[in-house]
Amino acid sequence: MKNVGISTEYITLGQLLKLADCIATGGEAKAFLQQTKVLVNGEPDNRRGRKLVPGDVVQVDGCGTFTVAAR
Fold it and tell me: Which residue segments constitute the domains of the chain, with CATH numbers given?
């Protein structure tokens, strides 16, 4: 499990995918989420605008598991 540190109140799922190197650009997020299974705190989610806060756990098929952490 890898930590993704944020210095703001929240980060969107699309931004997290980019920071975690699952996608190369933010524009790829919509298509990526339609094709790839993503779990947020154990629940399926495909909304690129989903707000993630410190403590949230995101599992991305083929990319890994990430925990949102405050910096």
Answer: 2-70 (3.10.290.10)
Q: Residue 61 has what DSSP assignment?
A: T
**Cβ neighbours for 28, distance < 8 A, ≥ 6 positions apart:** none
Grouped pLDDT means (10 residues each) for the chain, 71 residues: 95 96 95 97 97 98 97 89
Altogether, the residues listed in the chain come to a count of 71
Q: Is 21 exposed, middle or buried (0-12, 13-18, 19+ CB in 10 A)?
A: exposed
Evaluate if pTM is beyond 0.90: yes
